[in-house]
Design a protein that fits this description.
serine protease, alpha+beta, Dipeptidyl aminopeptidase/acylaminoacyl peptidase, Rossmann fold, 11-stranded mixed beta sheet, 17% helix, 38 strands, 4-stranded antiparallel beta sheet, WD40, 665 residues
């Protein structure tokens, strides 16, 4: 039975408020791993109304296996697990049955004759993933890692004899590259230079490995390591600093294909382009020079005859395939408009599996026959019995913000911010729609027009519009845009939300008096900061695992993340930066948050510690403001277990009903 009790809370207000303000009573409920405060009982009618939206699910491609089968990740019960599918629209055979969701799933090359796959799994969302081998014949598992460290990015050599991954096992702080001969499964360190390293690709003969050191979204360093000796050779970077993504050996084992924004002929580049380089001959080629958008991903067929890559064109992903070594485009079938992710060639190189997702359809897997350009659907995921034809597709809008940029020779013009706009259908003439602004995390993330059950429920059931902006600092719009919110420019991205509020006020179909904000992680900070600056214009906000003070966040985040986050946010140990954090952090200005607030958090969050949530809840309540608070003891950075997600979603919809959908002021 739930335990409910009421306690009176009071706290000294922060940021210059001289005396504590009596806060309303706090009603606390503990049910299993869930702790909730001030959250009313969820009406059964709302639970029933949400049920079908909460039972939508998708399928993601994870690799090809023997017998022309594929591994996929999907959820049939509480969490996403590994399944096998052996023909188009065939039965999904569930292989793993853990209460925790699987992370990485990596299949060995089919030619290796290794019948199984590697998967990662943590406990309670703590992100200290352990890698395991799943044997397909015995259905048994073998632990490959130490059981304690954070292990990720599994990678097999092309013959399957060697296996590499990234791990913090050496000292808990640095992410080294480890390797084992898969036959004896004896791990050894390969790269221990300090920082965060990832194995990118083995050479075809398995003797060398391409590696990458990641510093920030704008800075990474590629190199090559001799697998036998551990000798590391870093590659020179034009301009000294650049960002790199994919890095793969060409079929000849000497040349490389890679994705980078490295300067070309001394000229700075805004976007990540696909490039080819042969160090022996000096030949260099930019394969996407005419595409003014980022290249996101690449894969090379095992037979060495084709290369596939995707481009991110204003939030829409386009798939491309090139013949090798000619680099001539291959004709492809028409694909649904949306996202193309998790691409992978079949073992014989004649087909390409892709995961497709759109705003009106959850993720599913399709296979392209490269010879005939035929598209075959392999999975069809459920949409909870809903009518997909009634799903709302967003439109892409651009709104002006506060600063100016150089135009096309005609002078300066207002900077434009992109946003996806989900508008309910069949709105009666003259009716003004409430609005939820959904802000992504990262901060280098990018909101994309993916399938979003929440947006569909808001539009179709509650008649609420959703705006999903990509404020400055978002990826996908060039290097300059990515860096516009760094360090002491952090609040410029908050001003972009203020500009969006201005835009809402100019739209005749939107109700500027009924606006809510919603976001997770860095997006949670943006929610709190928006409420701090615009409480008079925002009725309510939902903060999920958000940062409330950058100084305490950087001090308390897991040690392996501290330097990575300092590269983006600034170093709290520097007095000048500490002053900036004090000035911009919502915790220090909790007295200015006068809108209704709902804070949700995972107790095991290694990225944004739960103390960030606890301190902002206490501070806002200390100013007499009621706050809904939800804490899961078995979750981390966000919620991944279906029952937890379902309750949070229902509580969020109740929060909007009570605090956003009332009459206009």
């Amino acid at each position: 039975m739930p335990l409910r009790h009421a306690t009176l809370c009071s706290a000294l207000a922060l940021a210059g408020v001289s005396a504590a303000v009596a806060a309303p009573p706090v009603v606390r409920e503990e049910v299993g791993n869930r702790v909730s405060e001030n959250i009313p009982a969820i009406p059964p009618a709302l639970v029933e109304q949400l049920n079908r939206y909460q039972n939508t699910r998708g399928a993601t491609f994870a690799g090809w296996t023997e017998g022309d089968c594929m591994l996929i990740s999907t959820r049939f019960a509480e969490t996403a697990q590994a399944h096998r599918v052996c023909q188009p629209m065939g039965m999904r055979e569930q292989l793993t049955f853990y209460p925790e969701p699987l992370a990485a799933i990596e299949a060995p090359p089919v030619e290796s004759k290794l019948d199984g796959f590697v998967f990662g799994k943590d406990v309670g969302g703590n992100e200290f993933w352990q890698l395991h081998w799943f044997d397909m014949k015995s259905r048994g598992t073998t632990l490959l890692t130490d059981g304690k460290a954070r292990n990720q990015s599994p990678l097999f050599s092309h013959d399957g004899k060697r296996f590499a991954w990234s791990s913090t096992a050496r000292n808990g702080k640095d992410t080294d590259i480890w390797m084992m001969d898969f036959a004896d499964k004896k791990p050894r360190t390969l790269v221990t230079e300090g920082g965060q390293w990832t194995a990118m690709d083995f050479s075809p003969d398995g003797e060398r490995m391409l590696v990458m050191k990641y510093v920030s979204a704008a800075e990474s360093y590629p190199g090559s390591v001799d697998v036998a000796t551990g000798k590391l050779e870093m590659f020179p970077i034009d301009g000294g600093k650049a960002s790199f993504n994919g890095f793969r050996f060409a079929p000849d084992g000497q040349s490389v294909y890679f994705i980078s924004d490295e300067p070309i002929d001394g000229k700075a580049q805004e976007f990540h382009t696909l490039r080819y380089h042969n160090p022996a001959t000096g030949k260099f080629e930019v394969l996407t020079a005419s595409t003014p958008w980022d290249v996101e991903d690449l894969d090379i067929a095992d037979d060495g005859k084709h290369l596939a890559y995707t481009t991110n064109e204003d939030g829409i992903y386009q798939l491309h395939v090139l013949s090798l070594p000619s680099h001539k485009p291959v004709k492809l079938p028409a694909l649904p408009v949306g996202l193309v992710v998790n691409i992978g060639f079949s073992p014989d190189g004649k087909r390409l599996a892709v995961t497709m997702n759109s705003a009106t359809s959850p993720s599913d897997i399709y296979v392209i026959d490269l010879g005939s350009a035929k598209l075959t659907r392999w999975t069809q995921s459920e949409v909870g019995g809903l009518d997909p034809s009634k799903f709302v597709a967003p439109t892409l809008v651009h709104y002006p913000t506060f600063d100016q940029v150089d135009g096309d020779g005609t002078g300066k013009s207002r900077r434009m911010i992109p946003a996806f706009y989900y508008r309910p259908a069949n709105v009666p003439t003259g009716k003004k729609l409430p609005v939820v602004i959904n802000i992504h995390g990262g901060p280098e993330g990018q909101s994309l027009p993916t399938f979003n059950p929440t947006a569909q429920f808001l539009a179709n059931e509650l008649g609420v519009a959703m705006l999903v902006p990509n404020v400055r600092g978002s990826s996908g719009y060039g290097k300059t845009y990515l860096g516009l919110d760094n360090a002491d420019k952090r609040e410029d991205s908050v001003k972009d939300i203020g500009a969006l509020l201005d835009w809402v006020g100019r739209q005749p179909e939107l109700d500027a008096h009924r606006v809510g904000v919603y976001g997770g992680s860095y997006g949670g900070y943006m929610v709190l900061a928006s409420l701090m600056h615009y409480s008079n214009r925002i009725k309510a906000g939902v903060d999920i695992v958000g940062i409330s003070h950058f100084g305490t966040f950087l001090k308390n985040t897991e040690v392996y993340r501290q330097d990575l986050r300092r590269a983006e946010y600034g170093d709290e140990r520097v007095p000048e930066m500490a002053q900036v954090f004090d000035a911009i952090s919502p915790l220090n200005h909790a007295d200015r948050i006068r809108s209704r607030l709902f804070v949700a958090q995972g107790k095991n969050d290694p990225r944004v510690p739960y103390t960030e949530a606890e301190q902002i809840v206490k501070a806002v309540r200390g100013n007499g403001q009621p706050v809904w608070y939800l804490l899961y003891n078995d979750e981390g950075h966000g919620f991944r277990k279906k029952s937890n997600v379902d309750y949070f979603s229902a509580a969020t919809m109740l929060f909007w009903q009570q605090n956003l959908l009332g009459d206009s002021r």
